[in-house]
Fold this sequence. Notes:
The chain is of the alpha/beta class. The chain has helices at 15-26, 49-52, 59-71, 114-117, 168-182, 232-241; strands at 2-7, 34-36, 74-83, 86-94, 100-104, 127-129, 132-138, 156-161, 185-190, 192-194, 200-202, 206-208, 214-217, 224-229. It has 6 helices and 14 strands.
Amino acid sequence: MKISVIQPDIIWNDKAGNLARIERLIAGTDNPDLVILPEMFSTGFSERTELFSEPPCSKTFEWIISLSEKNNYGLCGSYPVTEKDRFYNRWIFVTPERESWHYDKRHLFTMNEEEKAFTPGRKRVTFTFRGVRILPIVCYDLRFPVWSRNRNDYDLLIISANWPVARRDVWITLLKARAIENQCYVAASNRIGTDGNKIEYCGESMIIDPYGEILASAYPDKECTISAELSIDELAAFRKKFPVLKDADDFTLNP
Length: 255
């Protein structure tokens, strides 16, 4: 599978501008199977949920579906969604066949009072696309390894994020750790630039193999796309040769 990760400079609270910008960046990719966008790709990390959130299957969802169908790739990222009078930081994945899955961010960033704007998700989500088993997480989820612990049920961990410059080293360290401990590929999309709250973001989107080696990495301060090929056969051979997942501890997650 060929995957491409998009690293944009998200325009603050400008849906139309961001969707147009992302389309231009995606146009520079070379026939990927899967395209990954960052967290809150349509607005930036805005607290104005009442203004920018959409019902499920609304305008932004239809934009994702349209691009996916037109270009024959899976497309994913998070944006604010409202459902049953609650707001969610919702990660969406769509296929060219109009299949879709969603994951609501579990760990809300309390230091920035994200929990006052959004409702936390409760469900860990896995699914299969073109033969690759996928687990999505969103930004702050990356700090909580139990939530993304591989139960022999995924091959690719996708992270959509708005990760700040102040914690750049943590970003890189945790991405490598998640790949190594879960014997999986990791693909992480992060934004660059400065948002309306004066927070600066570190970029450095990357794709990492199960050994913790970086296959592709973006610049810290430049809009760009990165791509890499994933081999599920090579992953299976590595897991068979060095089967650490079979020795993992059992555990139960509370809802």
